[in-house]
Structure formats: structure tokens, C-alpha cells
Amino acid sequence: MAASSERSPPPFPDSEEPELLEDSDEGADAFTGTSISEMDSPSPDSTRPPKDIFNEPPEDIFSDPLSNINSEPQKKVDTKIPSPSSDEAVDLFSEPLDDDSEVMSSPEVQNPMPDLLNEPVEAPKSDVLGEPPVHKNAARQQDFFEDPPKGSNNSSSSVKKAVSAELFGDDEDEEDLFKETPKVVTKKPQPSGPPVDVFTEVKSDVKVKPQVKDDPTDLFTEEALTAPAQKPPASSSSSSRTNGVHSEEQDLFSEATVELSLDSPLNDRKKKDAVKPSLSAPAASVASSSSKAPSKTLEELEEEESEDKFDLNISVTNPEKVGDGMNAYMAYKVSTQTSLTMFRSKTFTVRRRFSDFLGLYEKLSEKHSQNGYIVPPPPEKSILGMTKVKVGKEDPSSAEFVERRRAALERYLQRVVSHPSLLQDPDVREFLEKEELPRAVSTQALSGAGFLKMLNKATDAVSKMTIKMNEQDVWFDEKIQDVENEEQHMRKLHVMVESLVNHRKELSGNTAVFAKSVAMLGSSEDNTALSRALSQLAEVEDRIEQLHQEQASNDFFTFSELLADYIRLLGAVKGCFDQRMKAWQRWQDAENMLQKKREAEAKLLWANKPDKLQQAKDEIAEWEAKVTQYEREFERISATVRKEVIRFDKEKARDFKRQIVKYLESLLNSQQQLIKYWEAFLPEAKAIA
Amino acid sequence: MEVSSAEAALSVSASSIRITDVTQDGDVLTFAIASQKLNSSAGVCVFRIYEDFDWLQQSLFSQENLPGLQGIIFPPLPSKALPSQSNTQTKALKQLGFLALGQDWQSYCKALEFYLQQVAAHPTLCKCKALDSFLINSESPGKQRGRKGIFNRLSQAVEEMRKESHKDVDNFFQNERNKNTNLAALSKVATEKLLDVVMTEQKLALACGHFATSLHLCVNQDDAAAVAFSKVCLKLSDVIEAVNRNFEKVASNDLSTLGLGLDLESRYQEAEKVWECVLMIACKLIELETVKKGTEKAKASKREVMEAFQKAVEKEFNLISSVAKQEIERFHSSRVNVLKNFLIGWCELQLNTAKEFAELYSQHLEACRNMYSE
């Protein structure tokens, strides 16, 4: 119980845990042997193949009252506050699943936990996830399993630790580990190969395999890979045996899924869903939904992507009110035109509602923003605007609102697909192609003002953290400052443009009134020529009013909306920096922890307590691994953010250029119209006798 | 014919009258009025303040020995500008309308200039000595005021009579009066609306200016991407600057031509109103006399005198009427002419501006496209 509270590592609030875990998975690629296998190994074995590890430790566990064993591990946990490996293992499962799965695969894993370790954080989530009854049953059923696993986890973890400690201790250069990890990665597909039936069942999983081979950096895919493998527990367990220590990692996952599979076939399906997101998380994972399509390597994809980048045309059209009253919503037609082979056809059209767009963003940002990608934010939810649409019928302002939103959604989608990595995301494809989308829920939190507030909070946090973080990278230092300044400027510009647009509208209104009064003047004028000229003038003024109106909307759509988009985008950029900062923080915390462990070890040495020494060494090894892993992660995320920001800058310049050209064209056009009008009017004026 | 006689009386040419400069000293605006002598190429320059203009106007109103004075439509003098209050712009705008706009009282000067030209070009008024001395004497003439306000009072009195919708004896005048009321109101509204338009254009120009300036703040030379973006910003700033100038120009075009023209028109309509009032007083007088005649018919002793008086009055009335009819012809043709000139001038200016900026925009567009391909 006490452990549970301490369990969640202090530096990271709960919300961050998912990243931590996922990251750890990712990072693990380098030394899967250390982080994952080490942590994971215990659990898988414990669940299904209780022979190897179970045999010994479980006995202890069972024979001893649970409390004893548990208490012991717990102590360990206590000492290791941030995350003892065993806990980590738990987290690993619970969290990836957890966040992947709005689907409730996680609860199964987590519910059991509370029994042993009490994970209050996750438990509530499971409620949210929604199928509590099922889970509870499952959880109860699993209690049998769970209890032992727990114990086994702890016990086996110690064993494992010993192993890993040796590993580290003997050759601290992780070369071995490294060598082994790739093996693990490559091997995995092979073991999973045998149970082909299983894979074919889960289509999405199949494609992942090749990927893993291609880029071993993708830990996620690995994870994903294993996930399918887990369904046939037998196969996975067998593979784990063949692979030895490292393959246990698989088991780990398999365990998770095994637990899932215990639940029901229903869950199976959900689990697939759950797996999918985790799949897509890896950068630019091909994951082409059609399993038959030959999967490409990353490089190929990138090449192809850059080639046909502009061969993807998305338009959002036909906003249409669906339903009545407060339940009414706007549906938009999303048409795609492309020659990209990753899509099933060249042109296709789907209907989407606004919350679907938000849902897409939510999915994307969940998966990608923590990796340092800039996920383009969607337009904000506007309760006022939408209410107007719902209530008012033929209000021009609501028509304007709808058009504005339509345009914003179009730009949003275009930004998403123009991002090389996001384009590859299965969710994006699904959004563009699939006829029916599951209804996006709880988009409220991420939309509108709430979203902005969140961003602001994030930025505040960043600025606070910046003080702590002594930035070694000058580039980032400057960039962060730049982005900050830029946002200020953009906001200012936005205000300016807004006032410009308002003045323009005012001008058009005034011109209309003037035209009217000129017309009146003309009609009561005695002199026929003058009267005629005046009414002509009134007409001219009327047209000019139209012109002003058009120009106002041009101003608005070219600049005001552009700036608003970029203000939102800059928020996303800041979010990236924030992610990087978090990675750094994690790394530093791990470093500190390692330091502490070393000190503790020294103390133990000094106090001459050999019994605890081994444990301390294990911990040190574990933390060393973590430090390297986190550092790597930090470097990777830094690289990604850097690439992203550079790309963002380029896009920005191009975007603005394009808008200026567009704007100038509209200006030129209206000037030419003006010339026409005046030229037509001049003879009239001259004709006044 | 009229013109030649007018110029015989006035030693300077009407069309050469210009207000070349204006200086502000506290509350007092001093105008430099330059004009050209008819017979020589020598120019005359005098300095006048608003009170001098006022004196001139009063002198014109109160010329004694001029028959048919009451039938004349006097060119309207713009109301007095109060420079110290003009910083509260809304007030000034309310008071002066268009004339408060423009830099350094330029439009106000234009209006005064136009007033002088109109007076000088008027066939009857140009003979007035006061005008001559106003334009030529370097000494300030405006000492003997005092008759000021008479007309105002008169017009007020008659305004009330108008309200009773007194029917005019002559249908011609009746129609004219109705039309005038209508036009006066409409032209006033039109002027106000145009003023709104111009104000908005100026605001827009200002907003563009701000926008352009803040775009400059986005400039950043750190790296290639930033430089590219900065270039874009600067370009946009140029463009917006151009839009800004466009608006400024359009606004000043509006102001200097149609604005002034409409303003003049509406003030002329007001002047016509006053003139009608004066006419009506004349009519009233006649009526009064007839009534008197009727009541005093019995007194034969005075009949002779009365008839003589009545005849004199009738004669005067006829004279006034004929002057008035002439005047109204003149007024209409000159009004139409003035408006036409303003309209043409305005249209041409707008056309030129539009062409100029179309050219400029297309240059910018070209530049932008090139930049894009870089």
C-alpha cells in the first residue's frame, strides 16, 4: 500500500507516466536486454509457463504467506522509490496498454495490481475505460494468476536482477547487450512466425513485423509485435524459452495479453485496438492497413513521401447540419484525391463531423507529440458559434462561422497530411478512408479554450523548468526564445489584422449607406444629367461596397486565419520543447537516482553488509541502464524536435509566401475591378451638362 | 457679359484667388490670400483671419444701395474653425464636417478659397467695395461689425414661418422651396455618409500602417529559415504599406473632391434656404401692405400716399422676384457645374489611384512569385 504511493516516480506526475513507459520501451531497443527483458522477464514466465521460474520462487511465494513475500519486495520497492524493476514491468504493461487503450485492455492488468501493489492511479482509469463489470470479473479470475505473478515478479526480478547485474557487472560496456537486442528483435519475428494463424488473425500486427526488422529502433513495433504473439501464449512462451533471457521480454507482453485473453473474445478485439495505437507510435511506421500491401522501409517511405507530397489533395466541403436542436451537428464532406499507393483508391470521400476531427487530433497527439513531433492542432471548439448554428437558421454570422470552420478544418487536414510522419499514421488513413468512424468521445477537454489553457500551462511549466535546465544546446536555447517571441508577434499581428478586417467591414457598410444616400440624392435631383450621374455613382458605390466586402473576407481568410493557425501551431511547437524538457528531466532524475544508489552502495560497503550489497549493485546496474536509456531518449527527442522545428520554419515561410501571393492577387483583382468601375463612370460624370 | 462687368469692378481675377498658407497662433488661424491683378502680372498677398471673412460676409449682406439684394443667394461662408478644440476631433467633425479633416486645415482653406472665388465670380457681389478691400488692402478691414447677426435673426424668424407651411404666392418659389428642403437634407446626409467612409478609410490606412510596422518586428536573422520568413514578412510589410498608401490616397481623393463638393453643395442648399426666407419676408411684406391697403381704404386722405407706397413696394417685390429667378437659374447651373467638376475630378483621381496601385500590386506580385521560386 505504501509502495503504491511511492511507486509512481516523484519527478513525473501521473499524467506523464504513459510517456515514461512508452519511452522506456522505445529506449529499450538499444538495450532491451537490460531494461525490458530484465523487468519483463519475471512476469511472463510466471503467468503461463510456470515451470521455469515459477517452479522455484512461486513455491516460496505460495508457501509463505503472501504478505511476507510481498512485504519483502515492497521493501525493495520502498528503497528504490522511483521504479523498481518489477514495478516498472508492471507499469510497462499497464501503461502502454493503458493509454493505448481507451479500450480497456489495461484494466485487466491493472486491476489485479491493486491487490498486490495497489495502484490507485491506474485503477480509476480502468473505471473510466468503461467496462468495469467485465474487468472486475476478469480481475477476480486473475487474482489467482495475479497473486503469483506478483510474487514471482518480485522474486524473479531479483533473480533477473542478479542476471542483469552480472551482465552489467561483467561487461559494463553494453556491447553484448546491444548485440543481443538486435537479435532479440530479429528473432522475435521468427518465433512469432510459427503461429502464423494468429497473426493473420490480427491483420494489423502482421505488417509490423517487417518494420521491426527494418528499423530496430522502433521499440514500439517490437512491443506491438510481441503483443500479437501473446495471444497464443503457448507459442510465445515457447519462443521465450528458445530465446532465452531476452525473449522474455516478449513473454512479458504476452503475459499482458494473456491476461487479456482470459477475459473474453470481446476483449480480444479491443486488445487489437489497443495494440494498434502503440504500433503507430513509432515514427513513420508503415503499418499499411492492408496487410497484403508490401511494407516499405522507412527510407523508401520517406522518399516516396517527398516525391508525392503534393499529390495528396484534401478538401473539406459541403458543411451540412445534421439533426435538430442542441443535438444537431455539422457534418463535412472530406474528399481526398491522391495517387499515393498507400491509399486504396485515387479519390474517395467520407463524411466527418467536427468532433471526429478533434478525435483525430487527440489520437495523433497522444501518439506523436511525446516523440517530439509537431502535431497540427485543429480549430478550436466554439460553443457560441455552434450554438448559433444550432439555434439560428439563416443567420449570416452563423454561415460565416461554418465557412470559417470549414476552411480551418481543411487547412488542418492539409497540414496533417503534409507531415511525412503523420501521413503514415493508420488513424489518419482511417480518418480519410473509412466510411464509419467510432464516435470520438471526450473531445471537450482538448478543444477550444481548454486546449489553449492547457498549452499555456505547459508553456508556463516549460519556462519554469528552463530555469532549472541548463541548456547545453545553444540552438535550442535560441529557438525556444524565438518561438516565444514569435508567438508574441503573431498575437500582435493577429490583433492588427482583426482590426483591419473590422475596419474593412465597416468601410463596406459605410460605402453601402453612402451609396444609398447618393441614390436618394440622385432621385430628387432636378437636373436630369446630374441625377443620372448620381444614380450611376450610387451603383458604382454599391459595387465598390461588394468589393470591400470581398476584400474583407480575403483579408480575413488569408491573414487572420493564417495567423490564428500559426498561433495554435506555435503552441504545438512549444509543446514539443516541453516534451524534450521532460525527457531531459527524466534523464536528470535518473542520473540523480543513480548517484544516490551509488552512495547507498558505498555506505553499505562501509557498513559491511554484504547481504544487501548485491541488491544495491542490482539497483545501480538498473539505474545505469535507465540513465543511458533516458539520455538516449533525450537525444533522440532532441533530434526529432530539431528536425520538426526546422521543418516547421520552412513550412511557415512557404505558407506565408503563398498567402501573400494570394493576397496580392486578390488586391490586384479588386484594383482592376475598381479601374473598370471608375472608367465606366467617368463618361457619365463628363456628360453632366 | 456679367463676368466682364464684374471684373470691371474687381481689380483681381476671381479664378486666381488662392489661399496659399495658413498659420496657427493659439486659437487664431491666419490665412494668406494671394490673388492676381487683372491688368498686370503682379500678385497681391494679404493676411486675413476668420473674423475678416465674417466681416466680408456681413458687408455683402448689408450693402445698402443695391436693388434686389434680397434676391441674391449668398455664397455660404464655412463656419468658424476652433483650432484649440480641434484636438477633440469628434467635436470638430461635428462642427465642420469634412472641413476638419485633412492636414493643416487644408480642406478648410480650400473651402474658404472656394467661397472667395464664388463671391468674386458673382455678377452682383463682386461689385462690392468690401470684397475689393478684403482682397487688396494689407490693413485688416474688419472694424465695423455690428450688423452681424441680423440675418441670422431674420432667418430664424422666417424659419418659424416656414414651419407654418405658409404657401408662397408664387408656385415657382413654392416648388423650389420644397425641392430645396429635400435636397438640403439629402445632401447633408450624403455628406455625412461620405465623411464616414473617408474616416473609415483613414482608420484602415492607420491599421495597415500598424500592421506593416509590427511585421517589421518579426524580422529575425538567425538562420536560413528565419531569414526566409523575415523576407516574407518584409515583403508583406511592403505590400501592406502599399495598401496603406492606397487608402490614404483614396481618402484624400474623396476628401479633396467629392467631400468638398458635397460639403459645398449642402452649404449652398442651406444658403438657398436662407435666401428663401428672405424672399418670404419680402412676400410677407407685400401681403401686409395689401392688407393695410384694404383696411385703410376708407381713409381717402391717405389713399394717395398708400397707393404710391404700395406701388413702390410692389415694384421692389417684382425686382426681387426677377433677381431671384435669375439667381436661382444661376445658382442651379453653377451648382451643377461645381458638382460636375468635383465628380469628374474625383473620378479621375480615383481612377488614377486605382491604376497606380494596380501597377504597384502587380509589381509586388511579380516580386513575390519570384521570391517563391527562389
Automatic annotation (TrEMBL), chain A:
Major place of residence: other
GO MF entry, a single one: phosphatidylinositol binding
The UniProt record lists the keyword Ion transport: no
InterPro entries registered for this protein in UniProt: AH/BAR_dom_sf (IPR027267), PX_dom (IPR001683), PX_dom_sf (IPR036871), SNX1_BAR (IPR028660), Vps5_C (IPR015404)
Domain spans labelled PX: 310-439
Coiled-coil regions, chain positions: 613-640
Residue stretches of biased makeup (Basic and acidic residues): 200-216, 266-275
Family (UniProt): Belongs to the sorting nexin family.
PANTHER family: SORTING NEXIN, SORTING NEXIN-1
UniProt-recorded name of the protein: Sorting nexin-1
Organism: Cyprinus carpio
Automatic annotation (TrEMBL), chain B:
Signal sequence, start to end: none
Domain PX residue range list: 1-142
One of the record's GO molecular function terms: phosphatidylinositol binding
Domain of life: Eukaryota
InterPro entries listed in its UniProt record: PX_dom, Vps5_C
Protein's name in the database: Sorting nexin-5
Organism: Cyprinus carpio
Organism lineage: Eukaryota, Metazoa, Chordata, Craniata, Vertebrata
Gene responsible for this protein: si:dkey-28n18.9
